[in-house]
Amino acid sequence: MRRRSCPAVILAAISETDSKATTTLVAPVVPRVFAFSMQAEQSIVVDPKSPGGINSPHGLILFDGVCVLCSRGCRFVSKRDRRGYFRFVPIQLAEGRPLAEQLDIDPDRPDSFAFVATGQAHVKSEAALRIARELPGWQWTWVFHFIPRVIRDAIYDLVARNRYRWFGRRDACILPNSDRSWPS
């Protein structure tokens, strides 16, 4: 029986000295199955000092404001956010629409939410995992990065397609109160 080796991704730095190029290994070999789970960050144009901006101490969660599941998720995050790190903006509001459009999310029919921090945006399952990583007691969720992003996002898409049917939909966007608490 012939044994097949797993294809690998190698990250290397190439440097030139005189007329000779050398390659230096800068990261260990990563099996291809895990290469799919690596998320490339998307740059997004945000005021550097506003939440999610490169110079901001706050992360921004861009969510579907009429979705009951989404607003409950934001309430869950807010209750556990002891540092006051997260800020929340519904995609449907004037503040959220341009950010959603930069991420190819239709503000009138959102199919994802986003997490923006230090000028980088994450969507779908990667957004959820990045948010969980910032919550006390939820850092263990990093293990889900071993599941290829394609699979994580397929599960995310299934829930997103059915979220109104399974959890309900509000007539208007729900926002946190000025004291960062969420209405019921």
Characterise this structure:
With 184 residues, the protein is an alpha+beta fold. The model is unreliable at 1-40 (pLDDT under 50). The strands form 3 sheets. A 5-stranded mixed beta sheet has the order 5-9-8-6-7. A two-stranded antiparallel ribbon has the order 1-4. Strands 2-3 form a two-stranded antiparallel sheet. It contains 5 helices and 9 strands. It has a domain at 42-167: Glutaredoxin. Strand 6, helix 2 and strand 7 form a beta-alpha-beta unit.
Entry summary:
The chain is an alpha+beta fold.
| C-alpha-based Rg, rounded | 20 Å
Let me know the largest β-sheet.
5 strands, mixed
Individual helix count: 5
Specify the oligomeric state.
single chain
Query: Which residue ranges are poorly predicted, with pLDDT under 50 across at least 5 consecutive positions?
Result: 1-40
Structural class: alpha+beta
String of helices and strands: EEEEHEEHEHEEHH
- Spatial order of the strands forming the largest sheet: 5-9-8-6-7
Helical residue percent band: 25-40%
Give the averaged pLDDT, no decimals: 77
Shape designation: globular
CATH topology name of the domain at 42-167, in short, is Glutaredoxin
- The number of distinct β-strands equals 9
The proportion of strand residues reads 15-25%
CATH class of the domain at 42-167: Alpha Beta
Taking the alpha carbons of the first and last residues, their distance comes to: 61 Å
Instruction: Please tell me the CATH architecture of the domain at 42-167 by its name.
Output: 3-Layer(aba) Sandwich
